[in-house]
Known about the structure:
InterPro entries: Imelysin-like, Imelysin-like_IPPA, Imelysin_sf. The chain has helices at 2-9, 18-44, 51-62, 77-81, 90-98, 115-124, 134-165, 175-202, 221-239, 245-263, 277-305. By secondary structure, the chain is mainly alpha-helical.
Amino acid sequence: MKFVFAFMLAPTMAFADPRIDVALDTHILPRFAALTDATAALAAAESCEVEEEWNTAATAWIGVSHLRFGPTEIDNRAFALAFWPDPRGATPKSLAALLTDDAPAISDASVAGRGLYAMEFLLFDPAFANIEGRCDLIADIANDAHLTALAIQSDWEDRYDAVLRSTGNEIYRNDTEALQELYKALTTGLDFTSDMRLGRPLGTFDRPRPARAEMRRSGRSLDNVRVSLTSLEELALILAGEELMPDVEARFEKAIDQAGSVASVVGSADLSIVENVADRIKVEALQQRVVELRAFLSQDLGPELGVIEGFNSLDGD
């Protein structure tokens, strides 16, 4: 993270709080550009054996999945790229409909049948292995995902960059409101990792739910947690003042180290180990590290950014 600190200390002519500039220039814009590049490679593949390209695109998505404001929310773009969780099992049903002769265009289809999570079914679920039309559908979904990612990136570069960078507009009245938006993205990302990426497969002690793990078919469930934590740490260190940086870094390190401890268990990739009591404890400890990290940010970073008491990162406000 040294490049971030150096950037923050460099002279700047920007009127915005320098943390906003750094968040845009070293976190938001590069990561959305990486998503566009990854989906472009996925769409350009000349066969339907695109597991490697899909994996790169999935990593890029997880790295921006907490930035659920502005361009990602227009036209349901985030859901079109990543429809999860899917508690009603809509994705396989939507894919089945898209494999029929009278299927709609991908861009007009349900978000459950679009994006990277729908592609995971086609690439890794045996139920779709030999279905007629599978390769064409993979190509169509890949192209649609790229167009969606490109639209998000273009919207950031052409419009929303200036909205967030130069406050005093109808969306952000001042720099404090822009910083609060970034803080909300940070804490919502941690909540999602704790409650969804870890909480869903953990279920309860008496009834673990490994089949609810994110991207379990491709074995990305635990890796998504690690990718998310790494990206969120990047944003947290940008937002943290100089005094808080060491504590923020140390607490993220504890969580990431615990994810590494989980990864050392055979079969941990899809988090199916939650069914084994001895191994489950490691996953519960990881969730607890994330919860503790979230509480620390609420207590120490939130007030420094001017976040009002009672702020709920999941309330959608």
